[in-house]
Amino acid sequence: MLKFIHLTDTHLVEQGHALYGLDPRHRLRRCIDSILEEHADARACVVTGDLAHVGHPDAYRQLSEQLARLPMPVFPILGNHDHRGNFRQYFPEVPVDSQGFVQYEKALGAYRGLFLDTNEPGVSHGVFCAQRAHWLAERLAEDEQPILLFMHHPAFDLGIPTMDRIRLLQPEAFISAVKGHEHRIQHLFFGHIHRPIFGTWQDIPFSTLRGTNHQVALRLDDTGQIAGSHEPPQYGVVLLNETGLTVHIHDFLDTSERFSLGE
Ligand SMILES: [Fe+2]
Fold first, then answer.
1. Residues whose CB falls within 8 Å of the CB of residue 17, separated by 6 or more in sequence, listed in order
2. Gap from CA of 19 to ligand 1 centroid (Å)
3. Of 47, 96, 138, 161, which has the highest C-beta tally within 10 A?
4. What is the domain extent for residue 123?
5. Each residue of 111-148: pLDDT tens digit?
6. How many whole angstroms from 243 Cα to the centroid of ligand 1?
7. 137, containing H or E segment
8. Which domain CATH number covers 180?
């Protein structure tokens, strides 16, 4: 059994600044405290983008400081709020592809983890261009190992109209890269939506979860602007073995009473 942590949408800002009435650095620190206390045996920690809220260098400095507290390797990717250059300054060890996109591969037990870059400067929606899709198609063609895919933007509608408008738009290159490999993609993890959601797309199971700072309210009607909320933050605890995987969602700030439910 291999355990890894899924974090998303940390949205760090310059130290001392608040975001939507919350302190993203404090929230992240509490999250890391919880991982250290409860899941320090995890073999990796994945962070699916929107690491920083406006891509400020100080946000990446704080992120690297907090993530450095973890004993396991950390695999971050970019979201629409991120700044590729500032990120790379503070995370020089994270691989990039030949075009400079933050795309790379890491082994997660018997699975190949493929980490994708859907960031496009100046826009909120996701972009996965022909060059990025070419990298993915090449990786998928290499062998028949089971795959875990990580990206910030979902490539499909989830039923929240304000978020569906800023998903991965024009996803044809992405869809064509994964075509024929759907059966090997054991799970697709993404961020961006700031809500716990599970389902399948093209027969691929997917999950996403709340961020560590602010959230998106469950509004399936078109509210025009994205409806924010202060629902509790989360991280995911993923258990992998040869037969499949399980995703647990942990509301790490919850302090409600624990008690015995009997046998
Ligand atoms: Fe976000």
1. none
2. 12
3. 47
4. 2-250
5. 999 999 999 999 999 999 999 999 999 999 999 999 99
6. 32
7. helix 130-142
8. 3.60.21.10
